[in-house]
Amino acid sequence: MSILFCSDSEDPAPWRDAIAQALPGMPFRVWPDAGALEDVRYALAWRPQPGALARLPNLRAVLVLGAGVDSVLSDPALPLDLPVLRLVDAGLVEPMAAYALLAVLYFQRRAGAYLRQQAHAVWQPREQLPPARWPVGVMGLGTIGRVVAQRLAANGFPVRGWSRTPKHLDGIETFAGRERLAAFLAQSRVVVSVLPLTAQTAGILDATAFAAMPEGSYLVNIGRGDHVVDGDLLAALDSGRLAGAMLDVFREEPLPAAHPFWRHPRVVVTPHVAAPTVAADAQAQVVENIRRLERGEPPTGLVDRSRGY
Ligand code: NAP
Ligand code: GLV
Hints:
Layout: E1 2-6, H1 13-22, E2 28-30, E3 40-45, E4 61-64, H2 70-73, E5 84-85, H3 93-108, H4 111-119, E6 136-139, H5 145-154, E7 159-163, E8 173-176, H6 181-186, E9 190-193, H7 207-212, E10 217-221, H8 230-239, E11 242-247, E12 267-269, H9 279-295
Parallel strand pairs: 1-2, 1-3, 3-4, 4-5, 6-7, 6-9, 7-8, 9-10, 10-11, 11-12
Helix pairs in contact: 1-9, 3-5
The structure holds NADP nicotinamide-adenine-dinucleotide phosphate and glyoxylic acid (GLV).
């Protein structure tokens, strides 16, 4: 019985140490050096190679080392009945809320304009509306999105939230379902997306969505790159319908050097750093879930495979 670490991008070392200490009876392997495939009982995965998990005949669960599970569920070879667990907070919520606040303040305080002015030594104060006149819409009101919404509200922004099922959050006007999306967008000067990527949310930030947003509004995307139809966003920025975008996630990562987002004057690009998984913050949740599974108890963060998150 062993644990297999499946990621080309993440460092296995802190996970090896944590597993050795907490679960000394479980050998720790790193893909592609999986040892005997039939011995692997649990996989710790972040963007695993497609087909890799399907080669493990006795795998009991995939423990995803992040909140979003799209890179695992998108593998067509993944067995349909295999339990997939995601991180629930595990240190991700606070940095996501901080990024969202930074992005909203960046636009509300005209930071982009001042950076451009500084490049030409221009001293020119600009009109600045107070937070109370900057309604913000948060797409996704789950573990992360609800704290994002509350953090923005605590900083004086009127906040609206949108989710699949109805929610009640003190001080936040909530909207639910696709039929309420346009009404939600129409009142949002900045839209912050913290959605998971599913069949229902792919491409949701498209020309129709941008047309529903107020003229001169802003987009912040910290969910997944595939939510955005890149060409539609560029067209909306070029026409002035949208005044700016701060993007942390992209359809292709790293964002290719030739992609127009890199050089667009109204786009701020960050390299998927809103909330990287910190092993020290996430290990306890992963270890506890393996222990629960070993005892036959329900784990936390079990993904609903039919919903896709
Ligand atoms: P979560 O707890 O599962 O919350 C997901 C939220 O999205 C829920 O409120 C859900 O609605 C809503 N939702 C899902 N499908 C929807 C749909 N079709 N229409 C409307 N709302 C929908 O997930 P989380 O832990 O907050 O994480 C959210 C996402 O953040 C992750 O999946 C990942 O993509 C992203 N993320 C990014 C970074 C980064 O560094 N950029 C870091 C961490 C996470 P219900 O409440 O009705 O179910
Ligand atoms: C990061 O993008 C995550 O999903 O945790």
